[in-house]
Each structure stands twice: as structure tokens, then as C-alpha cells.
Amino acid sequence: MATMLSSxxxxxxxxxxxxxxxxxxxPPKIPLVANYRPRKxxxxxxxxxxxxxxxxxxxxxxxxxxxxxxxxxxxxxxKQRALLQQIAERRDIITSINNATVSSEKEEIVxxxxxxxxxxxxxxPYRGIVExxxxxxxxxxxxxxxxxxxxxxxxxxxxxxxxDDTLKSGMKLPPKSYLDSDFKEKLHGTSSEKATRYExxxxxxxxxTTYKSSIETNEPTLHHVRDDADVKIGEDVKSPPxxxxxxxxxxxxxxxxxxxxxxxxxxxxxxxxxKALAKRGHRVMVVAPRYGNYxxxxxxxxxxxxxxxxxxxxxxxxxxxxxxxxFVFIENHMFNNLGSNIYGGNRTDILRRMVLxxxxxxxxxxxxPCGGLCYGDGNLVFIANDWHTALLPVYLKAYYxxxxxxxxxxxxxxxxxxxxxxxxxxxxxxYVDLPPHYLDLFRMYxxxxxEHFNIFAAGLKSAYQIVTVSHGYAWxxxxxxxxxxxxxxxxxxxxxxxxxxNGIDKKEWNPRSDIHLTSDGYTNYSLETLNTGKPQCKAALxxxxxxxxxxxxxxxxxxxRLDNQKGVxxxxxxxxxxxSQDVQLVMLGTGQPELERMLREMENRYHEKVxxxxxxxxxxxxxxxxxxxxxxxxSKFEPCGLNQLYAMCYGTIPVVHAVxxxxxxxxxxxxxxxxxxxxxxHRAESGQLxxxxxxxxxxxREYKSSWEGxxxxxxxxxxxxxxxxxxxxxxxxxxxxxx
Length: 739
Ligand SMILES: Nc1ncnc2c1ncn2[C@@H]1O[C@H](COP(=O)(O)OP(=O)(O)O[C@H]2O[C@H](CO)[C@@H](O)[C@H](O)[C@H]2O)[C@@H](O)[C@H]1O
Known about the structure:
By secondary structure, the chain is of the alpha/beta class. Among the domains are: 244-499, Glycogen Phosphorylase B (Rossmann fold), CATH 3.40.50; 529-718, Glycogen Phosphorylase B (Rossmann fold, 3-Layer(aba) Sandwich). Residues 1-58, 96-200 and 207-235 have low confidence and may be disordered. Adenosine-5'-diphosphate-glucose (ADQ) binds at residues 264-266, 268-269, 416-417, 469, 502, 559-561, 588-590, 616-618, 621, 638-643, 661. One of its GO terms (molecular function) is alpha-1,4-glucan glucosyltransferase (UDP-glucose donor) activity.
């Protein structure tokens, strides 16, 4: 097996050499190693030279030669794809061998070394393989450059073969049999290549002297710290890389990321989707602001400066590697201690924070080594989220693509909620630091805001692809009501819009293993123990809330941001009816002060039956999800909604307004066919909510077996991120090949 792979690689490599030796118009030798990018200067110089030669001589032969090179490059790319395919097939074989019940002797067919080579993202240098032509990475960037170290403890990189299996980062190379000497020589690079520097456009960050010195002195950086324990985390990822040749480098950029920072569903998505993408074989990073001192983080030593509204701002990059994902956090005093007030402050404060965040995030793949290697900008897609990071697609074009930088990097913008757009007066354009002709991307007019500056609008126009978090919402966005003023732009860009329903993080939200159900009388449960586990959680919740502990009274819950979007006013209008029934109600939320007041008032007025918990408590959210019988989501609009998904996993029945993602995910109960997952209503009115909830409570009391059927169907769904990650991958691939 090793021999087969080895020969496949060597053959391919040999072909590369032959191709590149054609004539002096060809690019410099480029070793075919994943994550190894030809230094930009070499490729760039070659391209410049080729262009200049052509312009000065006007020689048509040059055109032909160039054409020949392009053709050869295409052939090379095809060969690389074929190689990746072979690797995937090898992996399939190994998996099937492992899965079969074979004797331990047979298992030795795949040596540990080979197994690691295929399985561990960190040890597989083929992961994230890129096009044979280079990406425009500035030379001051720590993209793989002589990344191999002498490993024989003699302090010399002496060419001894024993040296060559280990990267500076401790990353393993494939077994020696995979490498021929020519190949190894290329990996080392030449000193002249290493020394080359490139003049950057002025907007690109100032390179950190701290970081430079750490490179030069080989001071330990984060990648030296990564140990076996980290790698083990990924070991449950036992399937072959599902992405196959589509594997790419993905950087999700978001203003919040659970469990470190979260105000709502965006935080959940930023914490979970990347893990599912990594499981498919992509190299995945999340970039978020560092709002506090998060215990898991290590200092990368990388510091850089960016201008925000004319002022120099230094950022400091921190990192953690968890569940196969690189989490990079950006520190600056503007983010400090904002964890519970992420979108707080006045309009220009938030705007300045997001400008800095986007500028600093976009260069992470150049400057922040993860596992020893920067991601680089080839084969790279950024996933920006909501208006807070909608500047990233704009910056990618304006600061980089227009200067021939990051040519192969793409951006996708995800709409989690279009109601928040980063609006301001047109003068706000001065904060985003873009050439004047970019103003038109931001300038909007609508009857409510008049002429204004709109960040989401610019991001939607600039992103290569747009995703929103359900099919229903993708449709609603095109309507005057659902688009919140951006429907025109959505319609114009419909060709690049796709709805993908969110998944849920089954590690975090699973009644079987939920860490918030292990104390205070709560218990973990599953479909098999639903009839005992859930009533126990209900009793524990009633006790914790100081409500009468009664098994027979339906306990209704609500969890959410207290925002007009969530329909809290409809619940409050329905409360007098609810308390006339034999029900208990608990509402957990934080947000608009008048809605917080309303919650407190309801609790005071109906203390026997109603609890209004004002605050943000993840533990309480889990406990309500487990202990309640019914979850209300009367949202006026709901792009996807996660709480109804969590509820169904916990055997809690959703009653929802049939909009957006709620409509997509909660199929209404049909008593004739014993199908469906909950109750829905079609107009955001308290009367309709009461009607749906009335039917739900009637079924709860009178039709226990129907009730259990709904619970079972909800719990048996596969709501994990796996399916959504697959669909995201399709979008990423589309973006990658888009020009
Ligand atoms: N007081 C509180 N204490 C503890 N936890 C609380 C809480 N209030 C809310 N949460 C938690 O925050 C999350 C809310 O997620 P949602 O998807 O329901 O709404 P949100 O509107 O924030 O997200 C937006 O983005 C997501 C993600 O795409 C879309 O699903 C959604 O429709 C869109 O509006 C859940 O995990 C919930 O438990």
C-alpha cells in the first residue's frame, strides 16, 4: 500500500519537473506539497517577467509559450486531483480494513505511521492542496518556507535523512518512502527564495517586529505547543475525508463564537459549523474578537497594526485548536470586556470595532501560523456572517484583489438576520477607509431611512456567494416585508443566494450527555429513558423556579432574545388565557428594556404560574429545554431558529409561527396520519397563538400516545450539522471556481 501511494506521488512529481523545465517563461519549480505555496515573489516575478518580455518584444511565440504553460498547468492540476482521489481511495481501503473484524496481524497492514498520515489533519501534508500556480502571498508572510528542521539534535540542518521527517512545528511528514531526494530538496527551498521580499500596498498591515523576531530566533510559538492531546481530539473523525478533492481552507469570521461569546444563534453557528466542515476534511479556522481572558487560548506572539479612521490600532492574535478547528481570537482594547455587550456602545463605536475586526481577520491566513503553517490565501474561502463582518468581502476585493493579492481567496456572506444592517448616515463611509468610488456599494435609499450608508448592502454585493439559514427565509428575503429594505439587492443577487438550514451541535445539545442536566435533581436521558428522564427534569425545573412541582401540569417555555422579532408581545397578550388554563409558563430572555419589564411584570402578576427570568443563562436555557413540555416560538420572522431544533431533540414540542426556518423545520402535527413535529400558526397574532397552543395542550392531556409519537419523531431526526456542512461545501466550491 505504501509502495503504491509512494509511486503515485513520485510519478506525479516527476511529471511536474519535466513540465517545468520547458523554457524560461515557465514558473519557478513548485513542489507539489499540500500547504506548500510557491513564494509569491517567485511566481509573481515570473509572471511580471513574462508579461514585460511579451510587451517589449511583441513576439507571438511568447503567446504560444504562455499558452503551453497554461495547458501544462491545467494538466498538473488534473494530476493533483487524481492524486487526491487516490489518497481518498487509499483511505477508503484503510477504513474498510479497520472496520472489518480482522486479526491484529492483518491490521498491521496499515502501519501507524501511514494511518496518521491519512487521518490526522496535522500530519497530512496533502490536506488543503492548492493549485500548482501560486497565490500572491507577500514574502513577509510565514507561508511554508524551509519549514523543515534538523531533527538529529546536532543543531545543523545537515541534510541527514534522519532530519527530514519532522516539521519545525513537530508535524510529521509521510514515511520516507514517500519522498525522493529531489522532492526533499525542493521542500527545503533555496536561500535566495527565502530572502526575497515584496513591496506591499500601503493598506496592508504593518508586519509585527515581535513576530518577525520569533521567526528568526525560532522562539516557541503556538504551533510548538500543540501536543498529542490536541490531535487525539480529532480521532473520532474516523471517516475518510468526505470533501475529497474539494478539501479547502475555510475561515469563518464572526463577531461571536460559542462557547466563548454568544448573544444568540450566530454564536452557536460559529462554534459548531466549522467543526462539521473540519470533519469533512477541510482545514477550518474561526476568527472572532477576544472579549475576555479565555482559558484555552495561547498567545501566538503575532502583533500587527491597522488603521481605523486614521488611527493606528495594534491587534494581538491568540489561538486554540479544538475539535479539529483552529480558533483565532483578535485582541484589541476596543474588544476588551465586551462579552456581555458585544453590540453595545454607540453606532460609530461598533462601526470602528467591526472595521478593525474585518481588517485584522482578513490577514490571519497570511500571518497567524496554525499548527506551524499559515493557511495562506490559495484555495481559501472566507465565510463572513451578518453585517458585522460584511465589510470583509468588500475589503477582500478593494484592498487585495484589486492589487493582485489574495487572487484565489473567495468570500461567502451568511445572512443570519437581515433586520440588522449596519446602517448610518452616508458620512459613515469615512470610517471604512475605502476609495471614494466604493461609496456606491454602501449608499442606499429607502422610505424609512432615506439616503443612508448600509454595510450589509455592500457586503451582499461584494460576496461571491450568499447563504441564508433556511429556504423559507431565502424566499422571504426577496419580499418587501422580509428584506427589510434590502429585498432589491437580494433579488438582483438571487443567482448567488442559497438557503441552508442550520444544524445543531450534538455535543452541546444532547439530552443524553448535557452537562447542565447532571446536578440539582436533573438527569440525562435519551429516547429510551424519555418517560422517566424528562419528568425528572421537569420536576427539577419546577423546583428550581419555585413553581408547584406537579407532573400533570403542562410546562410551557420560551427562550430568546427579547426583541420584537421574537414575538414576546404575543406571548404576553396570551398570558391571561394561559393562566386561565392549568399551565405553567417560564420565559428566559434578555434584551429590550421594555420587554424585560414586561417579563418581570408577568411574573409578579401571575406568580403561581409564570416565571420571567431576565438574564442570559446558558445553563437555564438547557434546563428549560429539557424540563418543559412545550416550547413557544411566536417569532414575527425567524431566519432559521435554533431553539425549536434543540427542543425537538429533547422531546419538547414546539409551537411556532410558520415563518422562515420555523416553517421549514416544524412540520405541523396531523392527527389523522399521526405525523408531524409540533403546532404551527400562520399569522403573528395572539389569537392564532392561543388556538395552536390550545390544540397542543388538548393533545397533551387527552392523547398521550399521539404526544409521545410527536416526541419520538422529533428526537429521532438527524439535526446534526453534517448535512448542512455538506451543503455549505457546495457553496464554497462554487465560490472557489467563480471569477
Ligand atoms: N437569555 C438567554 N439565555 C441563554 N441562552 C439564550 C438566551 N437567549 C437566547 N439564547 C440562546 O441563543 C440562541 C438563540 O438562537 P436563535 O437561532 O433562536 O436566535 P437568534 O435570533 O439569536 O439568531 C439568528 O441567527 C440564528 C443562527 O443562524 C438563526 O437561527 C436565527 O433565526 C436568527 O434570528 C439559542 O442557543 C438560545 O438558547
